[in-house]
Design brief:
The chain is an alpha+beta fold and 696 residues long. It is built from 28 helices and 10 strands. Strands 3, 4, 5, 6, 7, 8, 9 and 10 form an 8-stranded mixed beta sheet that branches. Helix 9 packs antiparallel against helix 10 and helix 11 runs antiparallel to helix 12. The longest helix is centred in the middle third of the chain and has 54 residues. It is elongated and about 115 Å long. 36% of the residues are buried.
């Protein structure tokens, strides 16, 4: 029961979360820094010049309580009470209301101040009151009202201008949709913002937009587009010394290249961010993230000494600055990276300790995506350690939170939920005493319903644990099935047991290559869907033939198909099986060509070549890896196919020597044939002479 209550409390805390402040528009430095204005106040310039600069500063910077002192300076002007200072008096009212949490006054004054700036046709960017108005809305949990306000302002600016203010509205809306997970709408608004700006006059804002578009594409899963826009952003931001967004863009690029397995590029971009940090041109959180990124890359590359060196640097920055796990530079996952480091070293006790700490910090900070990620990682950790109880516990938590987050996505916004709750509480405060009593009676009934719900929850939890065991086994079965679909059984077993596969040399392996005749010219005459359908039909049939004959499919390369036999059985038997498979492949292609009209030349014919010899077998790559064969045998088998004829199976002398006594087969000696790179080689065409299978 306590466990269920804890879970319910956790879910309630999830629902009551407020979206974090937008990253967009908060990384770059303000066009005027506060230190600049402070110096200006103490300078020996004339009073009128000083006040003119103060007014310009207040019109291009965000709302902030600190700006009250600059308002105080303006109030010293003898004309403070005249219409010329109307908008600054409104500005002061907005700041005071924000500080005192007076929602109505703050929002009204904010709107009025922006309207007054609009009358002067002020060009307002993300660091202006227009761009920073979102801070007010989030302060009072008014996300839906914020979206409505910016859409209304956008409609006005699109009609009357200025374009920069319209671009700012698109910018804010794009950021809002980004954090809501609607990347399609986010990209749409951000791209519309770029169309309204001129890169020559607004380079920094354009660079920021490109950076945000790149991050949106990355989150949406389109890495190529992300790289394109991030490189655009870097080019502009670097020219204009916009170091904050420059560091952000470089970090995102580093993460993309790390995910793609391009570690040299990933390290290069992370190093640029570190250099900016070493030069103290960016915030420490960016430098720390870059160093942590480099540590993670070295862990993946199995360079523990370098990984530990950078981990210690990141830890040092964290200890001095108490960096947030989730900040403007991205997720600062220090403990999780330590977990990966100690796991790679085989120190499971320390690895477990850091992963549990990472989960605690993420839970306390309400960073749900990381909570969910660490729960899943703990499930895998304990499952690998054969601790089924803890594995099931964390699997259950992961599934439960995943379901909850999925349901939350269907809610228009968390801010809307909070707003409705606040309105409900306000109404309750206005109830009469009798109404409150009636409300309390309803609460008693509601409490009874909650108790019933908890009892039902206990039963459901028991079922969840049972179902989790089944789900875990199903996931294992699915993983095994997927692995076996890519790798031979013994290779898959070794990969699961050791995490890697040693290369091996095999003697007398029989390799088959097939190639579709005139594929290129036929493909040009076929529509893409017809081409793919025909290839799919053929290759699926070939896969079934391989399975029937116990031959290992190696890979397909365009229209070519490669398979092999003999890695784990008698060479003569393997050669017979591979030849049988080749004859069935030719029979299938020929039967299909004869049975179905050749529409638009869409029916293929094929050549097949087979050779037997020694090979090296193993796995290459870190991502999308594949089992492959190497050696001169592969080249010769390919030459056998090249020198074959349409509809025929051509075998080398080495393969012939293993199957020449098979009575079901007939052989047509071709004598010595010139082979590119090999000289003359004896070849034979092979055919069946009985209707029975070669293997009977």
């Amino acid at each position: 029961m306590n466990s269920i209550c804890y879970t319910l409390k956790r879910i309630l805390s999830i629902v009551l979360l407020i979206f974090p402040s937008l990253l967009f528009g908060q990384i770059g430095k303000l066009e005027y820094s506060q230190s600049h204005v402070s110096n200006l106040l103490n300078s020996e310039v004339s009073s009128s010049e000083r006040q003119s600069n103060l007014q310009e500063y207040l019109e291009i910077t965000p709302f902030a309580i600190e700006n009250k002192k600059y308002i105080s300076e303006l109030k010293k002007d003898p004309n403070w009470d005249t219409p010329d200072f109307d908008k600054y008096r409104v500005y002061e009212s907005a700041l005071i209301a924000l500080e005192s949490k007076n929602e109505t006054e703050a929002l009204q004054s904010m709107h009025q101040y922006i309207d007054l700036l609009d009358q002067d046709q002020r060009l307002m960017g993300m660091n202006s009151p227009l761009g920073s108005a979102r801070i007010f809305y989030r302060q009072f949990s008014k996300n839906l009202q914020m979206v409505k306000y910016y859409k209304n302002k956008l409609s006005k600016y699109e009609t009357d201008g200025p374009a920069k203010s319209a671009a700012t509205c698109h910018y804010v809306l794009g950021g809002n949709y980004f954090f809501a997970g609607d990347y399609n709408l986010a990209i749409k608004h951000l791209l519309l913002a770029t169309e309204l700006l001129d890169e020559n006059t607004e380079p920094k804002m354009m660079g920021e937009l490109y950076a945000c578009i790149g991050d949106s594409y990355r989150s949406w899963g389109n890495e190529d587009k992300a790289i394109e826009y991030l490189n655009k952003a870097i080019y502009i931001l670097e020219k204009n010394n916009a170091f904050g967004f420059l560091a952000f863009s470089e970090l995102i690029l580093s993460k993309i290249y790390k995910k793609k397995g391009e570690f040299i590029s990933a390290l290069e971009h992370a190093s640029k961010v570190k250099k900016l940090g070493d030069e103290k041109r960016i915030k420490k959180v960016f430098r720390a993230n870059a160093i942590l990124q480099m540590a993670d890359i070295y862990i993946i590359q199995e360079q523990p000494a370098l990984a530990l060196q950078y981990l210690k640097q990141a830890s040092s920055i964290q200890n001095k600055n108490s960096l947030s796990m989730n900040g403007e530079a991205g997720d600062f996952e220090l403990d999780y990276t330590y977990y990966k480091y100690f796991s790679s070293k085989g120190n499971l006790e320390k690895a477990e300790s850091h992963l549990l700490k990472a989960l605690d910090v993420a839970s306390e900070s309400h960073i749900l995506k990381l909570v969910n990620k660490y729960q899943k990682e703990l499930y895998y950790f304990y499952a690998n350690e054969d601790n089924s109880d803890l594995a099931i516990e964390y699997a259950g938590q992961h599934i439960y939170l995943s379901d909850s987050l999925e349901r939350l996505k269907k809610v228009k916004s968390i801010a809307q939920y909070e707003s409705e709750k606040k309105e409900e509480f306000a109404k309750q405060a206005l109830l009469t005493v009798e109404e409150k009593r009636q409300h309390q009676r309803k609460n008693f009934l509601f409490a009874g319903a909650i108790l019933s719900f908890l009892l039902i929850g206990a039963i459901l939890r028991i079922r969840l644990i049972r179902n989790s065991r089944i789900a875990i086994q199903k996931e294992r079965d699915r993983s095994d099935e997927l692995l076996l679909n890519i790798l031979p059984v013994e290779v898959a077993d070794e990969l699961k047991a050791k995490g890697k596969v040693a290369a091996r040399e095999y003697k007398n392996v029989t390799v088959l290559f097939s190639d579709l005749v005139d594929f290129t010219s036929k493909a040009e005459k076929m529509t893409p869907d017809v081409l793919i359908e025909e290839l799919n039909i053929c290759f699926k049939a070939f896969d079934q033939i391989m399975e029937k004959n116990n031959v290992e499919k190696i890979k397909t390369i365009g229209d070519a198909y490669m398979c092999a036999g003999g890695m784990h059985d008698d060479p003569a038997t393997a050669a017979k099986r591979v030849v049988a498979a080749g004859l069935e492949m030719q029979a299938f292609v020929e039967d299909r060509r004869k049975a179905i009209p050749d529409l638009a030349g869409s029916r293929f014919q094929m050549r097949i070549g087979i050779h037997t010899g020694n090979v090296i077998a193993g796995i290459v790559g870190l991502k999308k890896f594949q089992y492959d064969l190497w050696g001169d045998t592969i080249n010769v088998a390919s030459r056998m196919e090249t020198n074959s004829h349409t509809g025929m199976v051509n075998i080398s002398e080495a393969t012939y020597s293993l199957i020449k006594n098979q009575k079901e087969l007939s052989f047509d000696s071709r004598g010595d044939v010139d082979v590119k790179g090999k000289g003359k080689m004896q070849m034979f065409f092979v055919e069946k002479i009985h209707s029975e299978s070669v293997l009977d």
